[in-house]
Design goal:
- By secondary structure, the protein is an alpha+beta fold.
- It is built from four helices and ten strands; from the N terminus they run H-H-H-E-E-E-E-H-E-E-E-E-E-E.
- The protein has an eight-stranded mixed β-sheet. It has a two-stranded antiparallel sheet with strand order 6-7.
- The two termini are 22 Å apart.
């Protein structure tokens, strides 16, 4: 979003990864891919892609959402057809911690623009849920695939992302090392800037 949490969307050729969204907000972690991130402890069985995908959002959303999964070659498989306009994806095994996500149709348009390096549609506000948390490579570079040398992954607790609105970003902090316990802007200064909003508790 991610997003790295949105690498799934890129690999799938749709739209999060996004970035990047578990239990209670967690400050920036000191881990790397080889270490368990601060938000790794999850009661969800992420080996089951449907269960994993549904853990990303409240049951009222995930219960009727379409569930898709991206293969390593980018091919997208629909695991379950939905009926509410939301799409959920399971945890990406390429990131250090669980990061399933659910997005509405507008967020999918925004993510498609991010994936193709196109301008996101104007005035098309979308929402992404990442109630299991997330792990991001960079808060400033939309296309980072891993932290810069000697830098850490950014670990976030449960959160939602508000995308597609420049106006909603006004007054929120930006920067490479965000305080993930409070709302902040990810990828500020780029067409893909979006608001990260921590939320308490778990999705289910």
């Amino acid at each position: 979003m991610h997003h790295v949490r949105m690498a799934l969307l890129a690999a799938a050729g749709m739209s999060l990864a996004l970035s990047g969204c578990k239990q209670g907000p967690v400050a920036e972690g000191a881990g790397n891919e080889a270490e368990a991130p601060a938000n790794a402890a999850s009661a969800t069985d992420h080996s089951d892609p449907v269960t994993s995908a549904m853990s990303a959002a409240p049951a009222s959303i995930a219960g009727d959402a379409t569930i898709v999964q991206a293969a390593a070659d980018g091919k997208m498989t629909t695991l379950r057809e939905g009926k509410n306009g939301w799409t959920c994806m399971p945890d990406s095994p390429t990131t250090p911690g669980p990061d399933p996500m659910c997005m509405d149709a507008n967020a999918a348009k925004w993510a498609q623009a991010w994936m193709t390096k196109a301008e996101p549609p104007a005035n098309t506000v979308g929402v992404m849920y990442m109630m299991e948390g997330g792990t991001d490579a960079s808060n400033t570079d939309p296309y980072a695939t891993g932290p810069a040398e000697a830098k850490d992954w950014i670990h976030t607790g449960p959160h939602i992302m508000i995308v597609g609105s420049k106006e909603v970003l006004a007054g929120y902090p930006t920067g490479a090392k965000p305080d993930t316990s409070a709302p902040y802007v990810m990828w500020a200064g780029t067409p893909y800037a979006h608001l990260m909003v921590p939320v308490p508790g778990s999705a289910q």
